[in-house]
Amino acid sequence: MRRIVRQPLSRTTEKRLAGYQRRVDSGESVQTVWKRARGTRTLRNEVAGTLRRMAGRRERCFFCEDSRGTDVEHFWPKQPYPER
C-alpha cells in the first residue's frame, strides 16, 4: 500500500457526498444511491479528478497498485464497507 495525501474537495462536493451518505445511512440501498450518483458531474469531474491527482502519473490504486486509481469502489470496496 502506498502512502497518499488526501486532496481537498470543494464545499459543494463535500455536502453532496454527505447527502449520499445520509441516504445510505437511512436505509436506502447502496447500489441505488451509487447507480444514481456515479453519472453526476460531481463524481465524474471533481471526485474522479481528485482521485486521479492523488493516484499519481500511473493512476494506480493506492492499495493494490494494479487497478485504476480513479475506481471509487476500489478505494472503499462496497462489499466489506457497505455503509460507505
Task: Tell me what the structure shows.
With 84 residues, the chain is mostly helical. Helix content is 50%, strand content 0%. The protein has helices at 11-25, 30-37, 41-55, 72-75.
What are the SSEs and their pairings?
Elements: H1 11-25, H2 30-37, H3 41-55, H4 72-75
**Largest sheet, strands/sense/barrel:** none
Shape: globular
Helix fraction? Answer: 40-55%
The percentage of residues in β strands lies in under 5%
Order of helices and strands: HHHH
- The number of helical elements comes to 4
The SS-based structural class is mainly alpha
Alpha carbon gap, first and last residue: 20 Å
Instruction: From the alpha carbons, calculate the radius of gyration and give it in angstroms.
Output: 13 Å
Task: Kindly state the number of beta strands.
Answer: 0
Residue stretches low in confidence (pLDDT < 50, at least 5 long) are none
Mean pLDDT: 80
Give a nutshell description of this structure:
The chain is mostly helical and 84 residues long.
Search tags:
84 residues; mainly alpha; single chain
